[in-house]
């Protein structure tokens, strides 16, 4: 760890600084580095993607090349920067990289934008708000379906947007957090199972699965410790394993079990109705349960920060 980040205490202080910055400033809207990376990734896709009629193995190779060209130069540039800068500057660089890699306050704001109109019975505004963070069709969702979609997104993104970048930051330093965030961004851009992206986006989806595997299991334990532990672990093991995503399933099942609600069910994606297995146990959620999901994620952040500051 000293080789990757100077000293362990620097990592803990950088984590604390990044979390405070995130809660204070939130996510930059017009100048976030991920916006620039998204533009770069779009250019890489245009340069390397083949037509969907090309052999799938060749599409996958081009997808690997596009992923590598999009991600590796950014990680190498950061490595060079850390090598050139004086060691006392590592804390500032680590703090900024982690700040740009996590989305704690952004997740809370998106959830509040859904919960507030739900509490006020304003379904039109709630549908619009949930449609900004999920890929399913939200135009005809009722109150329960909106609450479900919001909770599923909050619980899953608690892992993707908060705990996973912190995990890789602790394991590999600033370039671990950067590698994870760029990989996760490419999965969000290229990881869909549409005809155009099924094979080209294969590498982006698999890399995201690999990088999320351990953080997702730690998230399961986090949700379990902070809620109904027995039900959370049971749901993660017996329900999450059958989910289409090897990481999102256990995480959402654990969160639903911890909060004792039932999630999932039928949802429409890209014009196709998908009947998804139930996650969790208990009544269907309401706006109050969405509030509880945000509090569960918040308590998990506090727990992680406390353990990291105490243990390292």
Automatic annotation (TrEMBL):
<comment type="pathway">
    <text>Cofactor biosynthesis; adenosylcobalamin biosynthesis.</text>
</comment>
<feature type="transmembrane region" description="Helical">
    <location>
        <begin position="161"/>
        <end position="180"/>
    </location>
</feature>
<comment type="function">
    <text>Converts cobyric acid to cobinamide by the addition of aminopropanol on the F carboxylic group.</text>
</comment>
<dbReference type="GO" id="GO:0009236">
    <property type="term" value="P:cobalamin biosynthetic process"/>
</dbReference>
<comment type="similarity">
    <text>Belongs to the CobD/CbiB family.</text>
</comment>
<keyword id="KW-0812">Transmembrane</keyword>
<dbReference type="GO" id="GO:0048472">
    <property type="term" value="F:threonine-phosphate decarboxylase activity"/>
</dbReference>
<keyword id="KW-0169">Cobalamin biosynthesis</keyword>
<dbReference type="GO" id="GO:0015420">
    <property type="term" value="F:ABC-type vitamin B12 transporter activity"/>
</dbReference>
<protein>
    <recommendedName>
        <fullName>Cobalamin biosynthesis protein CobD</fullName>
    </recommendedName>
</protein>
<dbReference type="GO" id="GO:0005886">
    <property type="term" value="C:plasma membrane"/>
</dbReference>
<keyword id="KW-0472">Membrane</keyword>
<dbReference type="InterPro" id="IPR004485">
    <property type="entry name" value="Cobalamin_biosynth_CobD/CbiB"/>
</dbReference>
<keyword id="KW-1133">Transmembrane helix</keyword>
<dbReference type="Pfam" id="PF03186">
    <property type="entry name" value="CobD_Cbib"/>
</dbReference>
<feature type="transmembrane region" description="Helical">
    <location>
        <begin position="64"/>
        <end position="85"/>
    </location>
</feature>
<keyword id="KW-1003">Cell membrane</keyword>
């Amino acid at each position: 760890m000293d080789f990757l980040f100077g000293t362990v205490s620097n990592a803990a202080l950088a984590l604390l600084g990044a979390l405070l910055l995130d809660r204070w400033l939130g996510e930059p809207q017009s100048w976030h580095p991920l916006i620039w990376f998204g533009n770069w990734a779009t250019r890489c896709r245009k340069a390397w993607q083949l037509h969907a009629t090309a052999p799938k193995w060749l599409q996958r190779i081009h997808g690997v090349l596009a992923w590598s060209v999009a991600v590796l130069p950014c990680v190498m540039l950061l490595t060079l920067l850390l090598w050139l800068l004086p060691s006392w500057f590592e804390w500032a660089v680590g703090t900024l990289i982690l700040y740009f890699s996590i989305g704690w306050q952004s997740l809370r704001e998106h959830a509040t934008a859904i919960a507030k109109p739900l509490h006020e019975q304003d379904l039109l505004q709630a549908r619009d708000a949930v449609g900004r963070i999920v890929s399913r069709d939200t135009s005809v969702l009722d109150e329960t379906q909106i609450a479900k979609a919001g909770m599923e997104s909050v619980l899953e993104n608690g892992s993707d947007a908060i705990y996973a970048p912190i995990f890789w930051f602790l394991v590999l330093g600033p370039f671990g957090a950067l590698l994870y965030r760029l990989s996760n961004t490419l999965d969000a851009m290229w990881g869909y199972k549409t005809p155009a992206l099924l094979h080209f986006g294969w590498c982006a989806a698999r890399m995201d699965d690999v990088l999320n595997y351990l953080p997702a299991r730690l998230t399961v334990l986090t949700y379990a410790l902070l809620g109904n532990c027995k039900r959370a672990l049971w749901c993660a093991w017996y329900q999450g394993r059958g989910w289409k995503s090897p990481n999102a399933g256990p995480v959402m099942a654990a969160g639903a079990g911890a909060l004792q609600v039932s999630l999932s069910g039928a949802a429409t994606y890209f014009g196709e109705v998908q009947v998804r297995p139930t996650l969790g146990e208990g009544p269907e959620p309401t706006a109050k349960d969405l509030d509880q999901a945000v509090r569960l994620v918040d308590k998990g952040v506090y727990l992680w920060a406390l353990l990291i500051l105490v243990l390292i």
